[in-house]
Amino acid sequence: MPGQLQEKAPIIRMFGVTDGGNSVCCHIHGFAPYFYVPAPSGFTSDHLGEFQKELNSAVLRDMRSNKDNVSVTVLAVDITRKESESKRCSKVYSLKFSIVV
Q1: How crowded is the C-beta side of 65, counted as CA atoms within 13 Å?
Q2: pTM of whole model > 0.85?
Q3: Would residue 24 count as lying in a domain?
Q4: How far is CA 53 from each of CA 5, 12, 85, 91, rounded to the nearest angstrom?
Q5: Is 41 inside any structural domain?
Q6: Is the residue at 3 inside a domain?
Q7: Strand partners, 29
Q8: CA 6 to CA 10: how far, in whole Å?
Q9: pLDDT tens per residue across span 1-28
Q10: Cβ(98)–Cβ(76) under 8 Å?
Q11: Which of 21, 27, 28, 42 would staple 12 via disulfide (CB 3.0–4.6 Å)?
């Protein structure tokens, strides 16, 4: 996963059944969970570093427990344009984040 420096990484587990009736479980590695955040007017790439830092701090403050002593929750933030909208946004990854243009 881009920016992944820690040992732990997200793994998606998908369950299903084959045509023959056998149960299967697929472990998907290397996927960076993300979400979009609308970018305010005037937001540019110059703001990305500060946005990432502040968002990381906010997530850490809001964590109910941090038994693994995680210090980085936002691995990256990018400016992008969400395909379904014409708005600029931040695309934020859980353990990586991004901005949509």
Answers
A1: 2
A2: no
A3: no
A4: 17, 26, 26, 15
A5: yes
A6: no
A7: 11
A8: 11
A9: 444 455 566 778 899 999 999 999 999 8
A10: yes
A11: 28
